[in-house]
Amino acid sequence: MRAYVRPGRGARSRLRHHVTVTPSGWAAVAAAAHEKVERMRLVVFTEPQLGAAYTDLLTVARHAEELGFDGFFRSDHYLTMGGSDGLPGPTDAWATLAALAVQTSRIRLGTLVTSATFRLPGPLAISVAQVDQMSGGRVELGLGAGWYEAEHTAYGIPFPPVRERFDRLSEQLAIVTGLWGTPPGERFTFRGGYYDLVDSPALPKPAQSPGPPVIVGGQGRRRTPELAARYADEYNVPFATLDETRQAYERVAQACEKADRDAAGRAPLVLSVAQPVACGRTETQARKRALAFGRTPPLYGTPAQVVDQIGELAELGTSRLYLQVLDLSDLDHLDLLATEVAPQLGRADVSQPGQAEVSQLRRAGVSQPGRADG
């Protein structure tokens, strides 16, 4: 079996110099990265399977772009969960992102995460490369083993045992990155336990070279950090406590050290987390927004409180934060995060003066002077 090792990207992750860590691997990553988190990149993270049409996603993505958020990401699920009726029904993640690619201009787009059980790796590499071209190089691929058995049963998708799912994920990561990284004019061959590609022309090529950033996430103790160290540009820890996040970062750092990632010329992994957020100008408003989750989320309270909570994540080395929002009609929530939270995180490009007010006027049908809204 041939696995393609991607060349390194530019350094993208910075850790605070005062983080105290014990494992040598974690210390090595902290040293390889720079002294502190200069910026916390904020991403709007949606769960459309709970009930959203494409027009809802387009509205949120465009609004997030107006406000200066770093990215708009969506889950990749075909069935609702948690008691929601899921109406009007699921939307395909990559069909959605293809449309958003041509209906947005700056914001980064991606999945957190695509299930390896849903698509064959060759066609997946083609689809993501095409969407990357359509977006002008703004796409990122989160890829995982898959976990939600009910959606597989509902739509006739095979759901193998967990070990096989991780074996397939490993091969898919090798194939997708291998196809993207094969030089033009050369051929790509891969022989694995589940997938064989023979003399593939490895086309089309994405706009980004050697390919869109790859995100691997989860709290698995062995295979997840190993796959992240070998194939990923970013490692994401979803919905974990601070201590669980710290431990996950330590495990992936040890995996990077074991894989000799630095010697291979790879940039340090971007470290990210995904967390639900309910922020309000008052405690009452925050509590109302928390009802969408049925509990008090880890990122909760007034802007000052949420800034402090994000600061704790930054102390661990987190440099990218996926803010899970469930009420896609509540655009004022995004306005608040952009105008009163993001500026305190060192973000220079979020929430320029008056941006939220301009956005509110646009939603009311009032155009900004000197600007043609289309």
Describe the structure.
This protein is α/β, with parallel strands linked by helices. Helices cover 38% and strands 16% of the residues. The protein contains twelve helices and twelve strands. The protein has an eight-stranded parallel barrel with strand order 1-2-3-5-8-9-10-12, surrounded by nine helices. It has a two-stranded antiparallel ribbon with strand order 6-7. α1 (24-32) packs across α8. The N and C termini lie far apart (50 Å). Residues 1-38 and 351-374 have low confidence and may be disordered.
What's the structural blueprint in terms of helices and strands?
Elements: H1 24-32, E1 41-46, H2 54-67, E2 71-74, H3 93-103, E3 108-111, E4 114-115, H4 121-135, E5 139-144, H5 149-154, H6 162-181, E6 188-191, E7 196-200, E8 214-217, H7 223-231, E9 234-238, H8 242-258, E10 270-279, H9 283-290, E11 299-301, H10 303-315, E12 320-324, H11 331-341, H12 355-363
Parallel strand pairs: 1-2, 1-12, 2-3, 3-5, 4-5, 5-8, 8-9, 9-10, 10-11, 10-12
Antiparallel strand pairs: 6-7
Helix pairs in contact: 1-8, 2-11, 3-4, 4-6, 7-8, 10-11, 11-12
CATH superfamily: Luciferase-like domain
Tell me the CATH topology: TIM Barrel
Order of helices and strands: HEHEHEEHEHHEEEHEHEHEHEHH
Number of domains: 1
| Assigned CATH architecture | Alpha-Beta Barrel
Q: How far apart are the first and last residues' alpha carbons, in Å?
A: 50 Å
Determine the fraction of residues in helical runs and give it as a percent range.
25-40%
Structural class: alpha/beta
